[in-house]
Structure formats: structure tokens, C-alpha cells
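Practice problem: predict the structure.
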Amino acid sequence: MGGIGIVNNPRARRNQRDPEIARHLRNVLDSDGELVDASTPDELERAVERFRAARIDVLGVNGGDGTGHCVLSAFARAYGRDPLPRLLLLRGGAMNTVARAHAIRGSPERILRRVLARLRVSLPLRTVERDLLRVEADAGPARFGFIFGTGVVVRFLDAYYRSRRPSPATAAALLFRAAASAVANGRFAASLVQRERLRIATDGDEWPDASYLTLVAASVPEIGLGFRVFARCDEQPGFFHAVGVHGAPLQVVRALPRLRRGRPWRRRIAQDEVARELVLEGDAPRFTVDGELYAAARVVRVTTGPGIELVLP
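Answer:
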């Protein structure tokens, strides 16, 4: 049967602001696919069953990074070893980091129109291959996404979600505030940069003992706001880029301009490795996968997950 199956999250920021987006997308799709609303786990499971039975070629996600993470986790668990459908990110949320990292721009309707314009004249879709991260906390269920983080990243997201209007502008303002606070040795920076004692290993090799501001890993180059901190993510197929930041906050602030350009991490600031497995052990570490927040009792294991093709409109 094939076609495009779109999972629409009515609770995503853009959809809440304009509830008519789903109707517009259905009109654009016409007979080339189907859109299903899913704002609860049960609704998402039904969408997975429906689209898998239909053997969709392209999985569209109308939501942000968090919606994409939840949808991909459900599909990856259901598909197991079978290849996942190609992924089309429609930028319907407050955070669209993965889409921005691949220069996907425009409204959900405009993105969908560009893809359908190619399909309707039998032109091949432009795609890029990525590996998902598989994240397991203690004995919990596997979660799948593109970006993992602890420490400062989690506390930054806490502050971001507390803001009344989450958006790229809000995130940029928070980053500027954090950098200025670090320079002034202020309270806001101090609330973000509490160090964590973590025991870390990549592919079985133990890292030197250190307290970390953050431990991050990704299979995409950007962490957000255009910062290409995972420049080595494409270095080897089937591997991801892991970075443990142990430098002083001011050192990190001074390094931000070069990190934004994708320049290499300096050893006095961070340890970075290309790996297939990352294991961290700490005292109830909190972590994020694509902007969603979780907690572990003791151990988190990140491995290379299934591959997926991202559609580039």
C-alpha cells in the first residue's frame, strides 16, 4: 500500500497555536496518505499498528523533538529488526533541533507539499541516513532518539520548560543569560553548572575519573541553536559522538564561538569519543532524550540503535 502516514500531536506547540494545521495537512495529503492524531500512549500504539499494517513508505511526525522521540520509540519497538520507514519531520513543536540540524525549514504544510511534489512526479526523495540512539535506564524500556544529555543540559531544559513561552528565542535568551551569569559568577550559572560524579565507559574503555558539567551524545551534528558540538557524529558509520565536559564554566563559555562552528573539542575542556556504546553510572542521574526528561536509579546505557533515513524536503 505504501504512502505517507503522519502522526499528529495535537498538544504540540504549533498545533495548539493553530488547531487547523491537522486539517490543512489532511487536505494536502489527499489520497497519498493518512494523518492520525495521537496525544496519548494508547493512541500512539494504535497509530503504529495502523501504519505498520499499511506498510507506509514515509512516517511523518507533526510535532517537535519530544513528539519525534516518542513516535520513533514506539515504531522502533514495534518494528524490531525490520527496517523503519523513512522519517519526515514537519516541525510542529517548540523544539525542532533535529529538523534544524538538517536545514529543514518552513511550515508543516509547506514541508509536506515539497515532498509530495516530488513523489507525485516519481522523483526520488532526498534523504540522509542516521542511526538512532538506543537509551536504556537500569532495567527500564528502551527509548530511541538522536540526542542524549545529562547535567547542565537537563538543568537548562528545566529552566526552558519553566518559561512561559518555550521557543528558539527563549532558548537563545537563556543561553545568553547563562553565559553572562558565568562571567559574573552569578546565581543562575551556579544553578546550572553543578557537577556530577559519573563513572563512564565507551566501548568498554573506562574514562578518567572526573566530575562532569554534562555528558552528551548524538548521532546528529547539532545540539541546538546552531551549535555543532557533535561534529564527529559522521566519522564512522554505526557510531555516535559522545562528549564529557569537565572544564571550568568560563572555559566552556569562551569556547562557545568555536564550538558553534563545529571546531574540535579541546582536551582541557572535554573528553570526546566516537563510540557504539556509552555506559554511565552515577547517583540517580537525570537525563534527556531529544528534549524529554527522565531519571535513572544508577546506570544508563546508550548504544547505536536502528538506522533511519531522514527525508530532506
